[in-house]
């Protein structure tokens, strides 16, 4: 097996072509692809860009408590959209995150003795209930970034958003134009998203 792996590395995984193979029942199917899926490819590119800006990636659990999902974030969101675990092992893992913020804030809480500023980000999945899906829920992909320091650091987060949007070819929309994204705080980012 090791020889095949060395040969594949020498030849180059990305130069191998996908081809249809026949299984034992005679039906043809596509062999497992060695190329990245589009979502994995874009998430890797975004991870790289955010890391180059100076942020550190964190990986958190996708499960959290109901309290962390809403009360601790002061969110009054639609609790009927939360995917609840049927038989959780503990109260810390009773629901699927509807936002990446509970995990990223928990990371800062456990690292508050770390030298400031703390610049962290996470790229990952969240889940919400959706009756239109065959499994009853859908996964959404999100990017969350957090800056924790002595000053507000709005310019740091603003530059991060600008860089990610620029790299994805999403143009800035001046105030007064159509609004597709609106963050309701002291800062307003407006970008035009096309399907």
TrEMBL record:
Matches recorded under SUPFAM superfamilies: Class II aaRS and biotin synthetases
Pfam family, one: tRNA_synthFbeta
GO BP terms, alphabetized: phenylalanyl-tRNA aminoacylation
GO cellular component: phenylalanine-tRNA ligase complex
Reactions mediated catalytically: tRNA(Phe) + L-phenylalanine + ATP = L-phenylalanyl-tRNA(Phe) + AMP + diphosphate + H(+)
Residue stretches making up the Phenylalanyl tRNA synthetase beta chain core domain: 38-171
GO terms of molecular function: phenylalanine-tRNA ligase activity
Subunit composition and interactions: Tetramer of two alpha and two beta subunits.
Alphabetized PANTHER family for the sequence: PHENYLALANINE--TRNA LIGASE BETA SUBUNIT (PTHR10947:SF0), PHENYLALANYL-TRNA SYNTHETASE BETA CHAIN AND LEUCINE-RICH REPEAT-CONTAINING PROTEIN 47 (PTHR10947)
UniProt-recorded name of the protein: Phenylalanyl tRNA synthetase beta chain core domain-containing protein
Species per Swiss-Prot/TrEMBL record: Phaseolus coccineus
């Amino acid at each position: 097996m090791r020889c095949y792996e060395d040969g594949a590395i020498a030849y180059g995984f990305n130069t191998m072509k996908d081809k249809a193979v026949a299984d034992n029942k005679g039906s043809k199917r596509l062999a497992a692809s060695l190329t990245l899926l589009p979502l994995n490819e874009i998430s890797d590119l975004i991870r790289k860009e955010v890391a180059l800006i100076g942020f550190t990636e964190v990986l958190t659990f996708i499960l959290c408590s109901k309290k962390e999902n809403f009360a601790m974030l002061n969110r009054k969101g639609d609790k009927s959209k939360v995917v609840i675990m049927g038989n959780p092992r503990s109260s810390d893992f009773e629901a699927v995150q509807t936002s990446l913020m509970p995990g990223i804030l928990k990371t800062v809480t456990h690292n508050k003795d770390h030298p400031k500023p703390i610049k962290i980000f996470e790229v990952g999945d969240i889940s919400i209930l959706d009756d239109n899906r065959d499994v009853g829920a859908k996964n959404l992909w999100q990017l969350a970034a957090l800056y924790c320091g002595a000053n507000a650091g709005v310019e740091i987060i603003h530059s991060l958003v600008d860089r990610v949007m620029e790299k994805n070819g999403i143009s800035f929309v001046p105030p007064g134009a159509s609004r597709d994204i609106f963050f309701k705080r002291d800062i307003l980012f407006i970008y035009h998203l096309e399907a």
